[in-house]
Sequence to fold (514 residues):
Amino acid sequence: MTSQLVQSVDWLTIAPPVLTAAVALAVLVADLFVPPERKRILGWTATGGLVAALALLVPLRAGDRSTFCLTPDTRVTACSYTADHFTLVVQLLVLGGALLTALLSLDETRERLPAGEYWFLLLSSAAGAALLPASRDLATLVVALEVASLPAFALVGLKRGDRMSGEAALKFFLSSVTATAVTLLGASFVYATTGTLHLTEIAQRLDDVPGQLQTLAEAGVALTLVGFAFKTAAVPFHFWVPDTYVGAPLPVAAYLSVVGKAVGFTGLILVTVVAFPSYADVWGPALAVLAALTMTAGNVAALRQLSTRAWSAVRLLAWSSVAQAGYLLVPIAAAAYSSDDQIGATVAYALMYAVVNLGAFAVVALVARVRPRNRIEDYRGLYATHPAAALALAFFLLNLAGLPPGIIGLFAKVTVFSAAVDAGLGWLAVVMALNVVIALSYYLRWTALLFRTPEEAPEEAREGSAAPHHRPSHRPSHRPPVPVILAIALTAAAGAVLSGYPQFALRFATTALF
Fold:
């Protein structure tokens, strides 16, 4: 009995999320003593902490460590924290995404946002996001989900005095709390029918659920998926996305679109493939239908965005992220009909999406410094004034569309399409193909706008200025911030490398299987 109460603790295994949380606390305390003119040091400290957390993944690259186990022998017992290849790949994605978000945020915290609170909340959320893929019991999984989510609510509403920011945070908070309550209810049903919280033991005991508890078990499986479906922005849990992205600071919107989504998909993979494989007939069809509805709703809404509407660029990226969530759901649904190998397609697509979507948000953040209303029309002729930024944004949009030279985007879509076909989900593959065609319209429309002739400034047009002296609409008022340029360069370089060697993404993701 004593051996079951003593859990082993491997500090190196849990080092990445623990270090991130420790730096968050250090930044919060340091904020009390750092004078206002030196608050920028807090941002660089947070950025350095994320780099160090990423470096701590290297000693764990073998993917064979576990901790918080019921007995010292991790090979024969259930553990609450496992640093396998799946964990390491997702931690690389979320910590890398948080690092790029930090680069986008350095200038924002100097000018518009309270530095101490912002960096504490961002690092706290990143710590929860890094904990979640390693969680192997329902209690740790739900706690990690909430640690990742609760700071995000505050980040969305951190623009003090901004009505849209407060409204966005409230919508995000209320809908998320409701989804979490439903998830906890489902987890309690699962615990009532199995008597355990560890995912691997749940999988074993669900095979032998007594007949009188069968309905309770099925309800628990379905309800447990709700919270994670909300985090992925799957239909019908997607309604918070556009208003939240518009109301949030742009770096926070970028963070939610990538890291928040990664948290949701990681949780879905763990509860479906690891904990509920015997109930694939319950969650498989449900996720397939959700995938079809999500990609269709996202693409149709993105197609309807007016280029002259305020914040239409952010709204288009928001609806695009909903559509991309539909594609990401396809391999998880396919795993119910074939094998767990299909999960590799979701991880590969998530890696591609993280790189190019963060890059797109980085360019949007750059343009927003000159055009704060961020309309799609504001990007007309961007190539004439910011050729590097325009080329980078075009590359990111073509990747999201799945067109060359965005080879990694095309490769990822083909991989997801193949997963649906191999699983016998031909109807879902057809729906995906139709949605890819729909998405081409708005991605190419935005891309083409980048290379059109810039409009004249209204005052110069009235004065009849000569053509050589026309002032383009994107003339910057000052030099772009170096951290934002670095974020664009890093994402563009990563996208180019992956496009040159797309097999790497799939091989890298395939090693992430349990």
